[in-house]
Amino acid sequence: MSRSIVRAHPCRCYRCPASLAAGTYQLAIVAHHHSVPYYVAAPRTSIDMSLPAGDAIVIEERPADELHFVQGQRVSAAGIGAWNPQFDVAPASLITGIVTEVGTVVKNTDSDIFDLTGIFPE
């Protein structure tokens, strides 16, 4: 039986690290570790060809209290910090392909770069 993971992401830049809900990166790592292909399903409208790489993506942060409190009750030790990212980034090296509404794009041979120019009209 052939297996793969397909997860919907906004694909933020043309080198296409994918970013979405926190946990995206961890899922990509687990897929890679178990040799399971990891595909990003992203509409072309979410691809920003002006961003050169994933490190240009600003990771939005949510309030730390969302992790420290549940229904008004503190569930963590007082005085500890927490990082609560809105989303994370899966690097292109962990992504097998990008599924769009016009087809699937795979990485260039011997590269972690996706050539997305073919999915955009001239």
Notes on the protein architecture:
- Helices cover 11% and strands 23% of the residues.
- By secondary structure, the protein is α/β, with parallel strands linked by helices.
- Strand 7 (97-100) and strand 8 (103-106) form a beta hairpin.
- It has helices at residues 24-33, 65-68; strands spanning 5-8, 18-21, 38-41, 69-70, 73-74, 87-90, 97-100, 103-106.
- The termini are far apart.
- It has a four-stranded mixed β-sheet with strand order 1-3-7-8. A two-stranded antiparallel ribbon has the order 2-6.
- It is built from two helices and eight strands.
- The mean pLDDT is 82.
Label this structure with key terms.
4-stranded mixed sheet, 2 helices, alpha/beta
Strand-helix topology:
Blueprint: E1 5-8, E2 18-21, H1 24-33, E3 38-41, H2 65-68, E4 69-70, E5 73-74, E6 87-90, E7 97-100, E8 103-106
Parallel strand pairs: 1-3, 3-7
Antiparallel strand pairs: 2-6, 4-5, 7-8
Largest sheet: 4 strands, mixed
The amount of helix comes to: 10-25%
Q: Give the strand tally.
A: 8
Total helical elements = 2
Question: What is the chain-wise order of helices and strands?
Answer: EEHEHEEEEE
What is the beta-strand fraction?
15-25%
Q: How confident is the prediction overall: mean pLDDT?
A: 82
Q: Oligomerization state of this entry?
A: single chain
Strand order in space, largest sheet: 1-3-7-8
The N- to C-terminal Cα distance equals 39 Å
Give the uncertain stretches in residue-range form. none
Structure class? alpha/beta
Shape: elongated
Radius of gyration: 17 Å
